[in-house]
Each structure stands twice: as C-alpha cells, then as structure tokens.
Amino acid sequence: MKVVILAGGFGTRISEESEIMPKPMIEIGGMPILWHIMKGYAWYGYTDFIICAGYKQAYIKQWFADYYLNTSDVTFDFSDGQSRMTIESSSVEPWKVTVADTGLYTMTGGRVKRIQKYIGNDRFMLTYGDAVCDVDVGKLVDYHKTHGKIATLTSVVRNQDKGILDISEFGAVRSFREKHSSDGVAINAGYMVFEPEIFDYLEDDDTILENVALEMLAKDEQLMSYKHDGYWQCMDSAREKQILEKIWAKGNAPWKLWV
User: Fold this and answer.
1) Domains parsed from the chain with CATH numbers
2) Is residue 180 over pLDDT 60?
3) For residue 160, what are the contacts with CB-CB under 8 A and spacing of at least 6?
4) Distance between CA 35 and CA 24 in Å, rounded?
5) Helical axes 137-147 vs 33-43, angle rounded to 10°
6) Residues 143, 215: contact at Cβ < 8 Å?
7) Short-list 92, 95, 9, 91, CA closest to 56
8) Whole-number Cα distances in Å, 169 to 136, 227, 246
9) pLDDT-based confidence at 170, cuts 50/70/90?
C-alpha cells in the first residue's frame, strides 16, 4: 500500500525556515521531519511513498537525489590523476519515493487528485508532512478494513486550533468543521486511510481536502475515526520545532519507533 505525504504548502507559520526550504524538510535532530514520518511508516512495512510537492519542490528532489551518497561511506580515488568513486557501505533505507509536482498554489485535495495516476484503484494512506506520531499504522489499517467505509482518519484530543471532529459513539465522523482557539476536543491528526473512491470527492486544484472532501464524506457517512491516545505533535511554529528538537535530543522521542 502506498503512503501519500502532503508536502507542497508554503509553511508560512514557520517562515523563519520555510523561506529557505519547504516545511517538511525542516530538520529535527539533523534529519527532515519528512524523514521522521517516513521512518515511522517504514517501521510497519510501508515503504512506497508519494510526496506531493509544490513550494520549493527542487529542494525535496535534490535531497532524495543525494540521499544514497550522503548515507554511504565513500572512497574517492584520484591517485592516478583520474577520479574514481567507490561506495564502501551504505545505510540507505529500502524505500521507493515518487516526488510529484502537484503545483505551487494547489489546495490539499487538489494535490491528492493530481497523484491519482500513481494510486490507480488501490487503497492508500495519506498524512501531512509536518507532524510526527506514534500511532500503530498496522492497527489503523486493520480498523479501516473492518468498517467498509471510504475513509478513516486518526483523531487525537488536543487543546489547540486544528480542524474539529464530531465523532459518534460508534466511531463515525458526523461532521468536520473549522476550529476555535478554545476547543479541547478530537482533531484530525492526519494518518488517514482511503479507498480509491476518495477521488470522486476531489474535483480540481481548488478542492480542499479538509473543508470539502472530508466534510462531504462525513455527510455521506463514509468517514470513520481511529482514536489515538498516544503521542502526536505538529510543527506549525518555531516554538513547536524547538519542542520536537528538545525531545529528540533527550533520546526518548515517542515517535521514534524504529531501532
């Protein structure tokens, strides 16, 4: 199953660094937060990624182009006046990564619509490229398979300003609305699973996944919630980046599932 990661936005709320690079490439512990997210999925065996790029997409493409070389021990031999390079050893992950140009100003739903050709008629996962989580992706997928609906999103209870969910006692998402700063209820944490029918809810580049597609799915009773009681943290600001950096530096980051 492919994993789609939204990584094309401008990241204006953390503009101190996003002026230089796209937000998913901002580093935590010396590696992009995008890498941390991918490592989490790979821990559960999902290693086929589609990155929905847009703003400063060349930065993402160049990073992956150099990734093999930068994770290897390399010998450069110029002893006979020529140049030879030998890869001595490498610790690169066995990933397949498609970095897709989904447009500079495309909305989130439009970005997903643009990569439909890479998904085909298969089930796929999707998340945002700016938040880390310790959700059990295997259990999330198992839950999605049980209810027969088009979509499952992961919900967490947070006291902050994200999109608000109204969830029934059976796990069905009844509505999806914009946030209020005082809300302390379930929010959409990303880590979604979709059937290919999701593409019927995505019209064009102007389609917003959250405000349009998810709301329509909720009204059609096709959106379910997987409740996550563990760790989740987004990186919307410099303060939140510092939080993640401090946790990583202590050596006990909850999202570091891999060994």
Assistant:
1) 2-249 (3.90.550.10)
2) no
3) 181, 183, 187
4) 8
5) 70
6) no
7) 9
8) 21, 11, 37
9) confident
Is the model's pLDDT at 12 over the cut of 70?
Answer: no
Nearest to 5 by CA among 50, 64, 69, 57: 50
* Residue 169: pLDDT band with limits 50, 70, 90: low
Spatial distance between the Cα atoms of 142 and 215, rounded to a whole number of angstroms: 23
Burial of 114 (0-12, 13-18, 19+ CB in 10 A): buried
User: Out of 8-17, 34-43, 126-135, 203-212, which region has the weakest mean confidence (pLDDT)?
Assistant: 8-17
